[in-house]
Specification:
GIY-YIG endonuclease; 223 residues; 3-stranded antiparallel β-sheet; globular; GIY-YIG_endonuc_sf; alpha+beta; coiled coil
Length: 223
């Protein structure tokens, strides 16, 4: 299967959620998440590792259905300054009340059935080292400084103990299929200082871009 030149080589065979694939391409003008869901509804579920699939397999299935594989829309990938300012203003409006958690919690409830915790609740739930899987929060002086995900939190936290500055941690248990979604929501909500930054942007890097959540073809609106 030939790799479209706009899809990075290093992710083409990587297992990931169909939602994360939206950062790289569209299938016949719709999100990969919507295409995969439609295939399942019509009795043609795709095989992978649980709910994780590979781009190469989704591309092959789409080609077999006679569908095009298109890059992320230019107007979304290259926003004008005015559009970016409008998006920021809308985001600030959504997260301003009740310590910024209300709107993101609505997104989380719709996607996973659980609301997002406030930063104070995350800190209050910090624990000594134990094995868990899900989304984890590294905390320094009662502030969340880093958000990540892992199927084995303890191993990941042990690694971070050598390269990040924190004094405690907290976790929430998350189904594997929702790890990218929940981690991204918390990164966009909390903007933790130790997470990486997008080039030319003040926001923290996340598996799923904020534009995917706010766009008209958001996975929130997928069938």
């Amino acid at each position: 299967m030939a790799r479209p030149d706009f899809i990075p080589r290093d992710v083409f065979r990587e297992y990931m959620t169909p939602t994360r694939m939206a950062n790289y391409f569209r299938v016949g003008g719709i999100l990969p998440y919507s295409f995969v869901a439609r295939e399942a509804r019509e009795g043609r579920p795709m095989k992978g590792r649980g709910k994780l699939l590979r781009i190469i397999d989704v591309v092959a299935r789409a080609k077999a259905r006679g569908l095009t594989i298109d890059p992320e829309p230019l107007e979304q990938a290259e926003r004008t300054i005015e559009a970016a300012k409008a998006e920021l203003a809308e985001l600030e409006r959504l997260i301003s009340a009740r310590r910024h958690e209300v709107k993101w919690s609505e997104l989380s409830v719709e996607l996973t059935g659980e609301r997002l915790l406030t930063e104070d609740e995350i800190v209050a739930g910090k624990k000594p080292f134990e094995d868990h899987s899900g989304v984890y929060f590294l905390i320094k002086d009662n502030q969340v400084v880093y958000v990540g995900q892992s199927v084995n939190v303890m191993n990941r936290v042990r690694v971070h103990s050598k390269d990040r500055d924190f004094d405690s941690y907290a976790i929430i248990l998350v189904d594997t299929a929702y790890l990218d979604i929940v981690e991204s929501l918390y990164i966009h909500l909390l903007n933790p200082p130790q997470n990486g930054r997008f080039t030319g942007d003040h926001g923290a890097c996340a598996p799923i871009k904020m534009s995917v959540f706010l766009g008209a073809d958001s996975p929130l609106r997928a069938p």
